[in-house]
Amino acid sequence: MENDIRILVVDDEPDIRRLLKTALTQEGFSRITLAASGEEAVSACATCVPDVVILDVMLPGIDGFETCKRIREITQCPIIFLSAKSDEVDRILGLAIGGDDYVAKPFSPKEVAYRVKAQARRLGMGGRTGHSVVMAGPVSVDEDACTVRVGQDEAELTAREFEIVRYLVRNAGRVVSRDRLYEAVWGEDSFGCDNTVMVHIRHIREKIEDDPADPRLLLTVKGLGYKFVTGGEEAPS
């Protein structure tokens, strides 16, 4: 049902956000998040992954195409581009970098709502009842409930810590640099981010590791970044 589907609307124009929210609500959607910039959109995706994103191309700060790339590091959900640009080159670029649909402005809000329905039907979201859970070793991240467990024990993480753990678990077994982690979770340029990331990693280890001074789950790869160990991988002795 539409009530189960999480939609993120990203547009810097308040009137367009309002019109789209109204049209979506009239079509039965109720879980709608609004963002006015690419940075807000990336942060919203990291907090609670949407099922469908409606994304304006001409955004202040990072534009819609760059925002799409960053969202794709978090989720593979359908992305519908909105743009005043109707050139074929822009349409092709939008689809090539990960967009699923492209609507030129001016548009009918009702048409966009029906395109959201079409994407939901295509992926079989209409009657979803299961949870989306990703795992790395004993660590499980329930993306619907926004919880993290180590074995059977729930870790009491802040919203930002949850975002960091989810991103690293989604990339389990791979090294993620501090810059990439910061940009994905905070949705901002990573200049001068090292201390911020290190403090959050330390706090997370205090909550998920048996011995935070000798981590076995969330590892530091010297000079490169961080990674979560996978189920078949052992932490170095």
From TrEMBL:
Classification via PANTHER family: REGULATOR OF RPOS (PTHR48111), TRANSCRIPTIONAL REGULATORY PROTEIN YVRH (PTHR48111:SF52)
UniProt KW keywords: DNA-binding, Phosphoprotein, Transcription, Transcription regulation, Two-component regulatory system
Entry protein name: Response regulator transcription factor
Gene3D superfamilies: 3.40.50.2300, 6.10.250.690, Winged helix-like DNA-binding domain superfamily/Winged helix DNA-binding domain
Domain Response regulatory: 6-120
Sites of 4-aspartylphosphate modification: 56
Entry-linked SMART domains: REC (SM00448), Trans_reg_C (SM00862)
Organism taxonomic ancestry: Bacteria, Bacillati, Actinomycetota, Coriobacteriia, Eggerthellales
One GO molecular-function entry: transcription cis-regulatory region binding
DNA-binding interval(s): 131-230
A Gene Ontology cellular-component term: protein-DNA complex
Domain of life assignment: Bacteria
